[in-house]
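Example 3.
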Amino acid sequence: MTNVSPAVPTTSSSGDTRGWYRRNEIAVTPWLFLAPGLLFFAFYVIIPIFQSFNISLYRWDGLGEATYIGLANYQELMTDRAFEISFWNNAKWLLLYLLAIPMGLGIALFLNQTVVGIRLYKSLFFFPFVISQVVVGLVFSWFYLPKEGLLNAFLGVFGLGPVNILGDPTMATYGIIAAGLWPQTAYCMILYLTGLNAVDPEQVEAARLDGAKGHKMLWYVIIPQLKPATFIAFVVTIIGALRSFDLISIMTNGGPFGSTRVLSFYMFEKALAEFGFRMGYGAAIAVVLFLIMLVFIAYFLWSMYRDEKVAR
Amino acid sequence: MFPTPIEKSSRQWQITYQAILPLALILWLLPLIAVMIFSIKPDADFTNGNYWGMPSSFNLFENYGKVFFESDMPRYLLNSLVITIPTVIGTVALSCMTGFALGVYKFKGNLLIFFMFIAGNFVPFQILMVPVRDFTIDLNLYDTKTGLILFHIAFQTGFCTLFMRNFIRALPYPLIEAARVEGVAEWRIFWFVVMPLMKPAIAALAVLIFTFIWNDFFWAIVLTQGPDSQPVTAGITSFNSEYRAAYHLMSAGSIVAALPPVAMFFLMQKHFIAGLTLGAVK
């Protein structure tokens, strides 16, 4: 906090009669402004991360005494079948959730026109993102209902079904991911619509004169210019996939037979729900999830750091 | 402009496009439309198996009236409002200050603190869950709205700092230098020079945070329990278990729960999208 901004005349020579605060104003002010935000963030976010690491080394029911058991929680994870299922479901989420990016781009390209009422269409296409995931979950679980659901009514027209997507352990996870893709695609769409607005029309014209058309134009001229939008779409989609909790909790509550659990949901179950309060074991699951996320966070921060360097 | 503007294409494709648009929209919103139809149907349609035919009577007022006057729903809605609004105010206030500090001043650790805010904003909620719950219990705030508000303010400050700092970075720096040369105190520069320029950023953040917090479910079930403090996202599950299999009421209930952020979005669309797409263009 000693680096004084050079833009300011440094008058703090000897014989300065102003008070200490006035003399060090530029150095002190940022810390005063940061203090409340930093304090909140430290107590509720930064410190808890380390506490979770610590708790994961204990056996603790959340009320009584915690017993130190070293890495025993992690050893138990290695042989825990439910953990394995959750882990692989997370992988499925991560992979399939990325479909939101091309789908969002597709819809954005479809809607990037100027016809009457297009603004309303764009907002209505974006609609699913604004609704809470809880309601999205409810809407889709009713949509999938074997008897009352619209999906099966629709399949029935073609003489197919009925299928009970959420009741079938092999399909349930995919059913939930499809529900999650709905708002996520809307989010990516809006990112790309904004990106398409900023595409340089001269470059497009020039490419057109050179005979670029259709998917060649898209791949070589448009998509490179959409790079910032794509980066953000990646960040929010990956974070969204690893954070998936609401939909699972609402649509299947982990079932049938635990087949739709993911790490975030399994952790909650272990620590707070039906299995009783195994805080230490839950924390160990959270640590694993955190470490997976950390790989992506590190990559995002590194990319941002590069941009910062360029901007300087 | 890509793809080729529709005005420049053949008349036939223009007409086709205009026809596809509404169809695509209906298909896209189909699950939601289904719920809307459910919510105006009478009870009898479900017992008779008339799920997708015409509603035998139009029960909009009856169904929604039940939600509003005969259930805990209004309480949950009020809780949501009481949780969301202070969070929005608190987060915006804190992040204006942190954003100002990180965007205007050069000091050691500036970038480090900035990246700490960003990284914290990306962590999985579960790594915070056990300690934050304990902390809230220690503060005697478990199952209170205040406990939930304090956590939300702290967590959202991460994202908002990122947003505000980048916004302030893009403001013309000579403005601040000029004020300094005039001998204006730093806090006055914040209040009289920078703050007036931040109005669009504040509006964008306010709508975004409103939506995020209104839609939060995880922290609501971790930090609160009953109808005294639970917001509507958590309350809707108990509402649904009360009206099990009464799809017309459950549908009406979820539409009511989803409505406030939707209204917010349509009223403040420009700000909402500006906030969400920050950084999508350079």
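The first helix of chain A runs from residue 20 to 23. The domain at 84-264+295-311 of chain A is CATH 1.10.3720.10 (MetI-like fold).
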